[in-house]
Amino acid sequence: MDGDWWVLVLAALPVVALLVAVVVRGRQAGGDPQTLAADPEDRPVPAVVANPTKIEPGTRKRIDAVCTGLGWAEPLWLETTVEDPGTGQARHAIERGADVVLACGGDGTVRAVAEGLAGTGVAMGLVPAGTGNLLARTIGTPDSVAAAVRVALTGDDRKIDVGRVRVDGAEHEHVFLVMAGTGFDAAIMQSTPEALKVKVGPLAYVISGLRAMRGRRTRVTLTFDDGPPQRRRIRTVVVGNSGTLLGGLVLMPRATVDDGVLDVVSIAPNSIAGWIAVAWRVITKQRRGHQRVEHWQARSIVIRADVPQPSQLDGDPIGDAQELSIQVDPAALVMRVAPVPPTDAPDPG
Fold first, then answer.
1. In what residue span(s) does the DAGKc domain sit (predicted)?
2. Do 200 and 315 fall into the same domain?
3. Is the domain of 192 the same as that of 94?
4. Ramachandran quadrant class, 71 (left: phi over 0; alpha: psi -120 to 50; beta: rest)
5. What domain range is 302 assigned to?
6. CA–CA distance, 96 with 91 (Å, rounded to integer)
7. How confident is the model at residue 11 (pLDDT cuts 50, 70, 90)?
8. How far lies 232's CA from each of 152, 218, 327, in Å?
9. What's residue 41's pLDDT?
10. Same-domain pairing of 99 and 203
11. 224: which of 37, 107, 132, 298 fits an S-S bond (Cβ 3.0–4.6 Å)?
């Protein structure tokens, strides 16, 4: 056997030559030889569902560069349309074998993509490009396109709850990830012109809110889980998977995106003084501040108004609705989030 060592050497020469060629090509390209030598079909596949009205010139090139630079395949690029704001594109991405689907747009695009991904186990990443970007702010997604894409491709998986809504008894369910509401808040979303949002950003909602403050209260019936119906006169009822508003203001202090329940708040001021008290409660993150602010937590909620009211899902107006039947779908969506450093990690400063 010792005399046959040269036979083993000769047999190994083709393998050695192949490895040397891979290293040389990798060094010439200035990257990782193992990544660059991988066949395209062996690389993980990202998909981007993009709202073309929200993204800036050059965004696609930046996303492509990050994906290929991290050893992923060039992303499958799917644009939303008026007829399909993202749900169909997300499902198509799954059919094409996407390993992660990035929602590139505002909260409406994120919600539509989530509707296609919820329950599938395919991870969802965010590239914030809207006015509010509430879910992105809640889970800590960076504002930078390149940084957000890196998180989507290399971050940790976090399962979050999804709210499911039936409007006026319809068979089709909608989803929301942040908040659903009826009354004053939805009227603000409905009356805020898109052109104003482009011009002044989140301030557009403040302007519309000031205009809507003088509206009248309406009567609603609220039912939580298997509890008895409760009658209220309200200006708005909001059901939240997350309780954080623009500017870091907290409407529902106990709300968490992965606690398996939904938070509910009803607001019923009948004067400017009442609105000031409500605003103070939100600013100070207190559960008390006005006698007409009430909080609940539940897994299922039914809101039925005596007359149809403006309604919204994650900031998207859905028209007037008389009944919203809402339930939580726990841990239904896999979100890609920035890794959490160990608690005993050394201070980088």
1. 41-169
2. yes
3. no
4. left
5. 163-331
6. 9
7. very low
8. 43, 8, 20
9. 65
10. no
11. 298
